[in-house]
Structure formats: C-alpha cells, structure tokens
Amino acid sequence: MIYWKAFLIGGLICVFGQILIDKTKLTPARILVLFVCIGCILGGLDIYPKLVEFAGSGARVPLTGFGNLLAQGVKDEVDAMGAIGILTGGMKAAAGGLTIAIVSAFLMALVAKPKQK
Amino acid sequence: MQTNEQAQKSYAQLVKKVSPNSPILKNCILAFFSGGAICTLGEVLFQFFQNKGFAEDTAALLVSGCLIVLSAVLTALGIYGKLGKHCGAGTEVPITGFANSVVSPAIEYKNAGLVLGMAAKMFVIAGPVIVYGILSSIVVGVVYYFLGG
C-alpha cells in the first residue's frame, strides 16, 4: 500500500514540475530552486511532514523533500542550540546528501569521458 | 548568445503552435510514471533499511545516498541523460535529477581543469538550489525561533 502511495504522490509532484516546464518559461534549474523553497516553507509550516507520513519516499525523494529536510533540520537545531541553530541547522541537515553527491560526482568525473557535442 | 537563446525560444513556440496534438499530456504521463517509479524504488530501499534496524532519519539518508550513487553511475554511462529526454520533470525533480545536475557538468567540464572546470561547474545548478534552500531554511529558522513551535 505504501508503495502505491509513494508512486502516486511522487508522480504527481513530478507532473506539477512538468506542467511548470511546459506552461511557463521556467528552466529546469529554476524549477529545482522553486521546489526546494516550496518544500522548505511547507516543512516550516508543518504541512510537508504530514505528506511524508502519508506517502513516505513519494514525498521524501522529490526535491521538495530536500527542502523539507532543511526546514526540519533548522527546527531541530533551534530546539537543541537556540538561536545559533538558525545558522547551522540547514547545512547540517543537507550535509549527508551533498557530500555523497560531491564525492560521486568527483569519482565519476575521474573515470567517465566527456561526450563531444 | 542572447539572440541564439531568443531564436531557440521563438522556434520552440513555433513548434508548439504547429504540432498537431499537445505534447503536454504525453509529457505529464511520462513524468508521472518515471517520477513515480523513482519514488517507489526509494520506498523499497527505505523499507529495506528500516527492516535492517536503521532509524527513520538514517534510513532516509541511506535511501538518498543509494539513489544519488545510482544516478551518478547512470549519468556517467550516458543513460540518465537519455532517460531525461523522454521523462522530463520525472527524472529532474527527484533527488536523482539533482545528482545528475551535479555529476553531468562535472564530467563534461573535466577537460577544462580539475578546479575551475570540474569542481566549479559541479555547482552550476546545485549551487543556486543550495543558496535558495539555505536562505529559505534561515527564514523558517527565524520564524520558528521567535514564534516557537
């Protein structure tokens, strides 16, 4: 059951992105920026965590889930450290994913050949 | 550069007008199924890691890690780019698309040097995402700090 929910919600979030690509002049980069900001704000309002509860990875895997992760990270850090958490929470929450992305990009760039266009 | 972009845009609009049936529906269906499939794969991995006894946060990070590495390998093999041409937002919006946006320029620009080529271009798309993501998280943090949870 959770798999179907993940499929449905994850698919719908991507359709939302596709409609933005087709109907507006927004480039994919801007859409990714927009999605992270939307996810972060909805995370701050405690709306996105409910979607995660419902759809699991369907809400976590799209980039809005990354935004939500930042929001939850900031909140946890403010709870634990006070005001300084405003500055450290976001980066701490993003640390794991970003580091994996950087390391894998570095390794792939070492082994893969650029394709001529 | 600018005129070239404008020419491309007007050409895209022309194509849109002349095309007999709207491609939007087809694009949306492809985005729905490809995006949904990636998220379902994420959920399969998530359940697997939870059954192994990892806490929710750790399991979520491991899922992201697996998807990022998978996307990086598929990008290096040139497969993710081909998928992206058909799936559009379905492969761009999930975390795998974010990983692709980091890995792909890193590979393409490695001949321009390891510092200003590969390392700098790695963040062509990821950089703005991080900048605005962190700025939004600060807004959330400030509001949360002063208004409480």
Number of strands of chain B: 0
Number of strands of chain A: 0
Radius of gyration of chain B: 19 Å
**Class by alpha and beta content of chain A:** mainly alpha
**Overall pLDDT score of chain B:** 91
Distance between the termini of chain B: 49 Å
Question: Which overall shape of chain A is indicated by the principal axes computed on the Cα atoms?
Answer: globular
Tell me which protein chains meet in the greatest interface and how many residues each side has: A-B, 82 and 77 residues
* Mean pLDDT value of chain A: 95
Give the helix proportion of chain A (percent range).
over 70%
Q: What is the total number of structural domains of chain A? A: 1
Low-pLDDT stretches of chain A are none
Q: Per the principal axes of the C-alpha atoms, what is the gross shape of chain B?
A: globular
Task: Enumerate the spans of chain B where pLDDT stays under 50 for 5 or more consecutive residues.
Answer: none
Secondary structure: helix percent of chain B = over 70%
Order of helices and strands of chain B: HHHHHHHH
Treating each run of at least 4 consecutive H or I residues as one helix, how many helices of chain A?
6
What does the main sheet of chain A amount to?
A: none
Cα distance, first to last residue of chain A? 44 Å
* SSE pattern of chain A: HHHHHH
